[in-house]
Amino acid sequence: MSKWHRVNLIDMLNLKARLLEELQKIDGIEDRPSPVSGGSALFYKGKEFAHFHNANELDLRLTSKVIKAQGLSHPEDSLHHPSRSRNSPWIELRFTTTNDMKKLAALVKLAVAEL
Predict the structure, then answer these.
(1) Is the pLDDT of residue 23 over 80?
(2) Fewer CB within 10 Å: N-end or C-end of the chain?
(3) Nearest residue to 102 (alpha-carbon basis) of 93, 91, 114, 112
(4) In whole angstroms, what is the distance from residue 63 CA to residue 115 CA?
(5) What's the DSSP call for residue 78?
(6) 58 C-beta neighbours (distance < 10 Å), count
(7) Quick check: 27 and 18 in contact, CB under 8 A?
(8) Helix 3-23 and helix 98-114, axial crossing angle in degrees, nearest 10
(9) Contact 42, 29 (CB under 8 A)
(10) Composition of the chain by helix, strand, coil, percent to 5
(11) What is the pLDDT of residues 44-72, one digit of tens each?
């Protein structure tokens, strides 16, 4: 692995840690292993509503209504859900910058409000 890739991976892990730190301020949110996806997942009052595919991609149950209202679209190059329906309540969201992370935190708050 090149030095650039190591630095980039560290940056991504730091962004994920900062996102989790921000989300844990919301009463009822926990980060723990997912019995479904096998990786790190977010739970609200015991119900899984999001899980990480990697250090910079969150699969979030947001509802199709909110996804459309926010103008979000499923990534065309999705590795985990390449044939996900446009009407799915779940959306894969990538974050690579602090600004992306802040937007994602706001979307998680919307998702929690829908639970």
Answers:
(1) yes
(2) N
(3) 93
(4) 10
(5) -
(6) 25
(7) no
(8) 40
(9) yes
(10) 40, 25, 35
(11) 998 999 999 888 899 999 999 999 999 99
